[in-house]
Protein: Short-chain dehydrogenase oxidoreductase
Organism: Lactiplantibacillus fabifermentans DSM 21115
Amino acid sequence: MAIENKVIVITGASSGIGEATAKTLAKNGAKVVLGARRESRLQAIVDDIKADGGQATYRVTDVTKPDDLKDLVALAQSEFGGLDVIFNNAGIMPSSPISALHTDEWNAMIDINIKGVLNGVAAVMPIFTAQKHGQIVTTSSVAGIKSFAGAGVYGATKFAVRNLMEVIRMESAQEGTNIRTATLYPAAINTELLHTITDESTKKGMDAFYQQVGISPQAVANVVNFAIDQPEDVNVNEFTIYPTKQA
Ligand code: NDP
């Protein structure tokens, strides 16, 4: 498989989609480098992967800090001798109606969901450009392709990264640097993401909805695996992932 021996950096790897993806890619022979803020969770996941015969390492990483992303990428190079893919997956979703004016949460979403992705892009771009090879996979959301009442700022951050990934793909094709991008638009996936909602009425509605339709993060991990496993001259660039029960 094309995925075998690829060195893959994953942000937001301490739970949910990032954790499921790290384990799936490692099982298929990739060398995975995990980043997030909760060290005990990262350590436990790396231990699980190694116990399963896989190759993995981690570094405590806050994606809002550009130097943390540079250090995570440097770890991939020193530990595994290169870098093939970054999976920009870290994100939060403290959704609320705009009229509630949770401006601190707006700023946190912009810092993590947009600037966090940009920090990942900035950390890998010099490496991918020089080696004329690399792939940037990013978790947007269905809220990044259509609007949902109650998710104005979250959706804005996810629309932003959609544009960013498509422009990187186009510019790379023009510049001949062979950088591929893949953007994921998951719908309701059962993870810890809803824990980041503080607005009581939003949380109540979302909890009930996810209990009704939500699916396992393994669904997204399988799609990431598929995107990375394509031949070098194939860029599969956009994926929506819906629970079958979600309208
Ligand atoms: P989780 O809450 O389980 O995972 C979020 C991850 O992001 C955690 O590993 C968390 O780790 C990490 N993270 C948050 N803030 C930071 C930060 N500042 N620096 C580094 N890591 C950070 O939820 P999901 O797995 O669902 O979320 C993954 C992505 O999927 C997000 O971008 C989310 O927006 C997106 N998504 C999720 C959907 C869903 O229904 N679950 C639907 C559509 C998109 P830690 O706290 O340890 O730092």
The chain has seven helices and seven strands. The chain has one domain: 7-241.
